[in-house]
Design a protein that fits this description.
The chain is elongated and about 80 Å long. The protein has 3 helices and 9 strands. The chain has helices spanning about 10-40, 80-95, 155-165, and strands spanning about 45-50, 60-65, 70, 75, 95-100, 105-110, 115-125, 125-130, 140-145. The model has no long low-confidence stretch (mean pLDDT about 85). The protein has 2 domains: about 1-40, no CATH class; about 45-165, Nucleoside Triphosphate Pyrophosphohydrolase. By secondary structure, it is α+β, with helices and mostly antiparallel strands. The longest helix is centred in the N-terminal third of the chain and has 30 residues, at about 10-40.
């Protein structure tokens, strides 16, 4: 025999009704928010720094939330210039301070993030790193690596950018 069902207006009945309504309506709401986000969102822009030390080694970081070794960098926040974003990201991810304006190498279309994302790559030779960065919730590992001894897991886009900047490979349009 089935236990009696709670009255629709009882607290248990309202919770069940709310849960059922939410399950029915949630996909439509999610689609609506997604459509709004896609229509209202402009281009996104990121910065990456190819930091080269006196020995010709490249600074790479390993994030906690994505596989592989990457160039330091991230998104440009509203109201921030490219150079401000680059300086902030280098400080956050590598405890690296710019000593001179970096050279803009190229701007790439990055379809891995969205069909509206672009990445500006800067080459940095004039910098200081007062102390090695301390691993945190975002960066689990970091280091300077010789181009012929990059760590296992260095992503293809980083290898391609190193080849473009240091070895004269043609500059791609896509990250």
């Amino acid at each position: 025999m089935r236990p009696p069902q709670p009255h629709l207006l009882s607290p248990t009945g309202l919770r069940r009704l709310g849960s059922a309504v939410r399950k029915a309506v949630e996909p439509a709401i999610r689609r609506g928010f997604h459509l709004y986000w896609r229509m209202s969102r402009g281009l996104t822009l990121g910065v990456r720094g190819l930091v080269v030390d006196e020995a010709g080694r490249i600074f790479l970081v390993k994030h906690t939330y994505v596989r592989g070794w990457h160039l330091p960098g991230g998104g440009v926040e509203p109201g921030e210039t490219l150079l401000d974003a680059l300086a902030r990201e280098l400080k956050e991810e590598g405890n690296i301070d710019l000593l001179a304006p970096p050279a803009l190498h190229a701007v790439y279309f990055n379809t891995r993030v969205s069909r509206r994302d672009h990445v500006a790559l800067f080459v940095i030779g004039a910098f200081r790193q007062p102390a090695p960065p301390v691993p945190d919730r975002e960066i689990m590992a970091h280091g300077f690596f010789a181009t012929d001894a990059l760590p296992e897991g260095t992503v293809a886009s980083v290898r391609a950018r190193i080849a473009e900047v240091l070895m004269g490979a043609p500059t791609a349009q896509r990250w």
